[in-house]
Amino acid sequence: MKSRVLLSTVIFLSIIFLPSYGQKAEKGKNRITIKGTVLDASKKAVSGAYVFVDGYGIGVITDENGKFKVRSDGSARDILVAAPGTGFAMKPAEEKLEFILSNPTEAIPDFAMKYIDDNKAKAEKSKPKKMNTYTDIYQMIRHEVPGVLVNGRSIVVQQPNSFFGGTTPLFVVNGVRVTSIDYINPQEVKSIQLLKGSYANIYGDEGANGVISITLISGGDRK
Fold it and tell me: Within 13 Å and on the Cβ side, how many CA atoms surround 22?
């Protein structure tokens, strides 16, 4: 009788705990880099198109060649790109994607337009003339990005519930992870923002401490 009870207990615990270990291993195994290209109806590259993952804006826009790159832990389902005046398109998440924005009159989804408008408003507040007043990128972050502490070249995201008081963020420039932002001239910055929580989840474990996303002025912005 005792042996049957012991056997039943072992089986019960195996059912509860073994699947969770398998899921963790699978999650790490499925991490991928999603690369995409965005073109208009005439197959010309669309720069400055906004990229959304499962309905969330992630602070990534296409470069001058219409390309973007994001990391996923394998949970991403849909990738949507939108460019006001050009259109939008959505596809299931895959490692390589090509989007054709062929209907500029088609209404961009409300959640995407709100995100785009909010980001344009933030960029409008950060005019190049204002950027000229900053001597380096760290001084700019100190004044333009709420929720961070800047000491020299050290940047820490404030975490009210953290015993240590803060954490070091991931830096992303034009959608690409970088280890240093020393080279960035404040006059070349189009927008800068701190991503936290669900907005930073697309960067996986690296984004757990927050992401400082910087978009630089492109050739088209200078026209």
Answer: 6
Q: How far apart are CA 110 and CA 223, in angstroms?
A: 28
Tell me what the pLDDT averaged over the chain comes to. Answer: 79
Burial profile 142-179: b = 16 or more Cβ within 10 angstroms, e = fewer: eebbeebebeeeebbbeeeeeeeebeebbbbbbbeeee
Residue 87 has pLDDT above 80, yes or no: yes
Q: Where are the domains of the chain?
A: 30-125, 127-223
Over range 10-39, report the average pLDDT: 58
Helix (H) or strand (E) holding 16: helix 2-29
Among 35, 77, 10, CA closest to 175: 35
With beta carbons less than 8 A apart as the criterion, state whether 146 and 194 touch: yes
Query: For residue 108, what are its two tokens?
Result: 């961009």
Distances (CA, A) of 205 to 27, 73, 166, 174: 11, 9, 16, 19
- The fold for domain 127-223 equals Ferric Hydroxamate Uptake Protein; Chain A, domain 1 (2.170.130)
For the whole prediction, is pTM greater than 0.70? no
- Tell me, what DSSP letter sits at residue 111? H
Tell me the C-alpha distance between 31 and 5, whole Å: 41
Q: CATH class for domain 30-125? A: mainly beta
Phi first, then psi: give them for residue 104, nearest 5 degrees: -65, -15
